[in-house]
Specification:
By secondary structure, the protein is an alpha/beta fold. It has helices spanning 94-97, 130-138, 160-168, and strands at residues 6-7, 26-31, 41-45, 53-55, 76-83, 107-111, 143-146, 171-174, 184-189, 200-202, 206-209. The strands form 2 sheets. It has a 9-stranded mixed β-sheet, with no helix packed on it. It has a two-stranded antiparallel sheet with strand order 2-3.
């Protein structure tokens, strides 16, 4: 029997929320079978930080790699999903994960439940405390995946969690949807597009349960 795949990417549509001032998704049909054309053909415009997406280090550091230069093995492999319950707006802290992270975890998926509707922008989501990023880095974590639009608060100017991720060489995926996905061990498959010079890329992120 084929193991279940959990699709943790929100549907991409003009409704999906983006940071205020960023470019929302739109699609324009040049040809359409429904209009009598022989084929359907369309173009899209959108921020690269759309829905479930991988941040490139170039997004937050002058010396950071662009998304086409990120190692692919960061985004495929075993991971562990943990649920936390911070108050809305409180960053996820070391105390939320201490004693719960299995030894040897290289990829962690953190479910906060504080951005429940990907189609409705809300700024009071729970980001990551920079000290947590360092704590994860000390334990060998190479990728952090989170169910909110950013690892930093929406109003952050100094982006301390992003800076900590750069300092620790930790990759970032933001904006996944984890409703109904149990805690546990999974295989993550969330490859970014090979966008030359890109500061991010949307991903089709899925989790496959592991024994």
């Amino acid at each position: 029997m084929t193991a279940r795949l959990y699709d943790i990417s929100p549907p991409i549509s003009p409704r999906v929320a983006v940071f205020p001032g960023d470019t929302p998704f739109s699609r324009r049909a040049a040809l359409d079978i429904a209009r009598g054309d022989r084929i359907s053909l369309s173009a899209m415009t959108a921020t690269l930080h759309l829905g479930a997406h991988a941040d490139a280090p170039a997004h937050y550091h002058r010396e950071g790699a662009t998304i086409d230069r990120q190692p692919l093995d960061l985004y495929v492999g075993p991971c562990h999903l943990l649920r936390v319950a911070p108050a809305r707006g409180r960053p996820v802290a070391v105390g939320d994960l201490d004693g719960r992270l299995p030894e040897g975890t290289e990829r962690i998926v953190i479910a906060t439940g504080t951005f429940p509707d990907p189609d409705r922008w809300s700024a009071d989501f729970s980001a990551l405390h920079p000290a947590l990023v360092d704590w994860l880095g000390d334990r060998g974590v190479r990728l952090v995946v989170i169910d909110v639009p950013s690892v930093d608060p929406a109003d952050s100017k100094d982006l301390l969690a992003h800076a900590a991720c750069f300092r620790r060489g930790m990759a970032i995926i933001e904006g996944v949807v984890l409703d109904g996905v149990p805690e546990g061990r999974y295989e993550l498959i969330a490859l970014p597009l090979r966008i030359e010079g890109g500061d991010a890329s949307p991903v089709r992120a899925v989790l496959r349960p592991l024994a």
